[in-house]
Amino acid sequence: MRTQVGIVGAGPAGLMLAHLLHRHGISSVVLERQSREYVEHRLRAGVLEQGSVDLLRRAGLADRLDREGLRHEGIELRFDGRSHRVPMTELTGRAITVYGQQEVVKDLIAARLAVGGPILFEAEATGLAGLDSDSPVVRFRQGGRDAELRCDFVAGCDGFHGVSRAAVPEGVLTTYERTYPFAWLGVLAAAPPAVDELIYANHERGFALYSMRSPQISRLYLQVAPDEDIANWPDERIWAELRTRLETVPDWSLTEGPVLEKSITPMRSFVVEPMRWERLYLAGDAVHIVPPTGAKGMNLALADVALLGDALAAWYDSGRTDLLDAYSDTALRRVWRAQHFSWWMTSMLHRLDDQDPYEAKLQTSTLHYVATSRAYATSLAENYVGLPEV
């Protein structure tokens, strides 16, 4: 097979890049090791920054998003027995939209297939070759047969465990990472949300988050130990713990319902530099992961490929190389800003098993400062809705 850009991975990054390239008249082939059903239904992030919403609209992909997405103009912080709203739109002029990552993926796949763009599902990339030549090769296996995809460039959008990053020679990349001493237990429940905006709760028993996916479906999270066994969390225990951590203000209570799904997700930070080597360009979880507290994962992936799409378009249109050369440095400025914000939110809201009273008091002091300082609240709001340029 031959195409201009070989894209490994059919998550939001790979699919969005394919769509943007198509709009510039650039051909691509997307390889995805999982089935279409799997990628359209795996639960991931659900918060879109203003810039991500604007990108989807510019790309002609926002019809369903605009109908079904839930626009939020603030978030609520709960701590020390009180509640405080951060009015993000009032402070920044921008907002977030709650719209599940799987819904973004469904829209991108539908758009790709509508124009006849190839997505090869259940096609596992097994290796990359010739990245330092003008004709790189992506080797893959589909239907029990080995095949090759030849291209001008390779976009590695295949996540942390994919083959793309591993194809870079040893010694080229520098890794920065941190593992947090806790995880999130997440549940999807058939329960109408009891709130209009997300609640972030700091509680002595640990962090909790109240989110939603639709007017009928709630998405809720609890801080748990990183080695926690999901079998130890029957539905009754989950709801009891959510009540303890969230029902800390007067005249408010959870809306409960059947738990549809539950899982435990470790918390970590991870960045690799640079985000390119020769004709391989890395994007999304392949090169950076953030703890979900700041809701940045999918948004960073989309920002990466928006840059990469423009850079490739400039190369094909006029032979310009400046945008491709600057891709890694430009993307990493946003990545590190998001890393800091996610670390800050995580540190402010989570409790440690061995946390001393001094650290707990510092957390409460920080939350009080956000609640009383317009400047500090504006900083949180700007980072949460997404900085237009970094």
Structure description:
It is built from eleven helices and 20 strands. Helix 1 (12-23) runs parallel beside helix 6, helix 1 packs parallel to helix 8 (297-318) and helix 10 (357-372) packs across helix 11 (374-385). Strand 10 (137-142) and strand 11 (145-150) form a beta hairpin. The chain is globular and about 65 Å long. The two termini are 38 Å apart. The strands form four sheets. An eight-stranded mixed sheet has the order 6-5-14-15-16-13-17-20. A six-stranded mixed sheet has the order 8-2-1-12-19-18. It has a three-stranded antiparallel sheet with strand order 3-7-4. The model has no long low-confidence stretch (mean pLDDT 96). The chain has helices spanning 12-23, 36-41, 50-58, 63-68, 88-92, 101-114, 235-246, 297-318, 322-349, 357-372, 374-385; strands at residues 5-8, 28-31, 47-48, 70-72, 75-79, 82-86, 96-98, 119-120, 123-129, 137-142, 145-150, 153-156, 174-189, 199-201, 208-212, 218-224, 259-273, 276-277, 280-282, 288-289. It is 36% helix and 27% strand. The chain has two domains: 5-72 and 94-176 and 268-345, FAD/NAD(P)-binding domain, CATH 3.50.50; 181-267 and 354-385, D-Amino Acid Oxidase, subunit A, domain 2 (D-Amino Acid Oxidase, Chain A, domain 2, 2-Layer Sandwich), CATH 3.30.9. It has 390 residues and is α+β, with helices and mostly antiparallel strands.
